[in-house]
Design brief:
The protein is of the alpha/beta class and 267 residues long. It has eight helices and nine strands. 30% of the residues lie in helices and 27% in strands. The structure holds zinc ion (ZN).
Length: 267
């Protein structure tokens, strides 16, 4: 069984402004958020009555080889207590308006767990999230525009993440994310988005860090119906299997401590 944890920010979807989480934010930003959050929650509910990540989790739960745990940032310990993180094989991360709220101590634990072998799948607006920045070492900034027709091209049909996916997928009304996307050069570029506005975007990219595998995937704006598209769901499902650990590193303390057969003979 692959133990999948689906982590969701929940700020917009709940519509609830949590004073404790945003204590350090500027007053003006707090006042603004209090005004627009309830409306945002309403808009999301129209497209995702079961929740944005609720819709993704519902699909993953149908996979007999996955054991899915859904959590969100409004839960104790930001939804990721040590016990859960330490029993997660693949972590899916959807975040948008509250990247700064996630404590650095949690980000460090996620990064360490990835280096030891946990798979990490940041989705859509998680591109500048703290865990993705910490794991990849880049800002994740990109070019942005509101909704546009989007075609997701399958560039790598032999890749495990592209299995069962046609030459291209049409996503009406997805948000435009364009180049330049500040990411390290991907190990594999699996998908590329094209928009009517002419922009292109590296929308499905893989990396490894330590023993962990990472897949970033662009579709998933909270008011676009992309997570109802069966191919988008299939890609996330494939990515979970691909990112599941093949082996775990026991320690990160002494990265050069592996003894060579030669040194054993001499020692
Ligand atoms: Zn978005």
């Amino acid at each position: 069984m692959i133990r999948v944890t689906v982590w969701y920010e929940n700020v917009q979807e709940s519509g609830e402004f949590r004073e404790d989480l945003f204590a350090g934010a500027p007053e003006e930003m707090k006042e603004n958020m209090k005004k627009w959050l309830p409306k945002s929650a309403e808009e999301i509910k129209k497209v995702y009555p079961k929740g944005v990540m609720g819709t993704v989790a519902e699909h993953l739960e149908k996979c007999p080889d996955f054991q899915v745990t859904s959590v969100n940032m409004y839960m104790p310990e930001y939804g990721l207590p040590d016990e859960l993180l330490n029993n997660t094989d693949v972590l899916i991360w959807w975040a948008h308006v509250a990247h700064e709220v996630v404590p650095d101590s949690l980000v460090a634990k996620i990064r360490e767990r990835v280096l030891k072998g946990m798979g990490f799948i940041p989705l859509h607006s998680a591109h500048p999230s703290k865990p993705m920045q910490a794991i990849l070492g880049s800002s994740g900034t990109l070019k942005w525009r509101e909704g546009d027709y989007c075609r997701v091209w399958n560039l790598n049909p032999t890749h495990p993440i592209a299995q069962g996916i046609p030459e291209s997928i049409e996503l009406p009304g997805e948000e435009m994310y364009g180049e330049f996307f500040d990411i390290p050069k991907p190990d594999d570029l699996v998908f590329m988005n094209w928009y009517r506005g002419g922009e292109v975007f590296r929308s499905g990219c893989t990396w490894t860090r330590g023993y962990g595998k990472i897949f970033y995937f662009q579709p998933g704006h909270e008011t676009a119906p992309s997570y109802h598209n069966p191919y988008v769901l299939k890609i996330i499902e494939n990515a979970v299997r691909w990112a599941a650990p093949v082996m775990w590193r026991d320690t990160l303390e002494c990265p050069n401590a592996v003894e060579s057969p030669e040194s054993k003979v001499q020692g």
